[in-house]
Amino acid sequence: MTLAAALGQYARDVGGEQKGAAQLVARVNTYLAEANLASLRAIPVVSEIERVQIIASGGSPTAGRSDLFCIEELDPKDARALRPSLERERQRRLARRPNTQELRAELANRALASITPFDLQRVKTAMAKDHYASATIRQEFALLSADERGRLLVELARSRTTCLLPWLVFAIETTMRKSEILRDLLWSQINFEARTARLHDSKGGPRDVPLTQAALDALEELPRGQAWERVFPISAAALAKAWKRACERAGVENLHIHDLRHTGATIHARAFKGDIFLLRKVTGHKTIAQLARYVNYDMSDVLETFDAADARAAAKSRPQSYSGPPKLLGRPLSWPQPCRRRAAAHRGRA
pTM for this one? Predict the structure, then answer.
């Protein structure tokens, strides 16, 4: 499922119960248009005519007002073309915001599972360059990250400590321990060409940590220091305080910094299709038993595997001219639910 399709489904599922349904649909439609998908519209359950009739009969002006909306697809036949003058004005306004439009077009057609926290930061940066109002940027950011993980990303991005969001991305992508990132990692240990971070004093001994493109992008967000300087110049105490404050503002409970190591390991395990030998190269665990505590599959992972197997079996039974079943698409990355329970039981061991 692409980001645009997922946003459309999100609007259909929850938009009808929001007071700002019309504004939500308008923002979603910008992504639907970039993906050539049908636009949506929000129709009040109580129409304006019915509301006027209630008021005319002596009712309160707010008695007939409904906060419920019906979200439906807009039939292309019902879409009215803008007058040439309005269309020119619309195109002129879009041309003043090229960074945002280009990024929306890119993300709208990306698979939802491939959207990273850094992509959300890119949206924020692009909209700021295009001089969007702060409130508009926050609304767009919240739309692209409507779940618990997204709310936390928003709060970290709003923090005055600018390295917090890059730190979060780097921590998840590398699965490194807090002490390895904050205390041990210097700029001299980052090899951008080889895409590795060298740890000299890791718990399991010296090792090289492979860096994903998202991890490299997070490093690019930081001011480049001298070779002997720390990559993330923040103390453990300051990080813990900022993390607690962001979680409280985002309404996230019982999520600890070390849980990010579980989150990253689970995300990579899904990407590696359960290849534990590749995964051990990322996490640095010496035994499979140690690694198993950090990979937290849930029932949806099992069902996705079933569906993929069924799709392959169906494809083999089709005639050769059959193009095959739709590609099994990923789902949005989120905090694996068992992570917190298992992380709590094993916190302190790694």
Answer: 0.51
